[in-house]
Amino acid sequence: MLKKSFLGLTNYRIEYELLPVKVPVPEKVSASKTVTLFHPKNGDLSAAPAFQTGDRVKTGQKIALFADDPAYVISSVTGNISSISPYTGDFGKQFNAISINIDENEEIEEPFDNQTASLDTAVAHLAFLPGNPAYSALAEPEKAINTIVITGADDDLLIGTNQYVVSYALNDIKRGIGILKEISGVEQIVLVTAGESVQGYGHIGAEVKGLDTGYPAALPRMIMKDVLGEVVPAGSNCEDMGVCFMSAEAVASIGKAFGSGQIPVNKILTLVTKDGTQRLIETTIGTPIRDILDKFDVSINEEDRIILGGPMRGSAIYSLDHPVLPDTNGIVILDRNDAAYASDYPCINCGDCVRACPAQIQVHMLVRFLEAGQFEEAADNYDLLSCIDCGICSFVCVSRIPILQYIKLAKYELDRAKASEIMETTETTEVTEATEATEATDA
Ligand code: SF4
Ligand code: SF4
Question: Is the distance from the beta carbon of residue 348 to the nearest atom of ligand 2 less than 6 Å?
Answer without folding.
Answer: yes
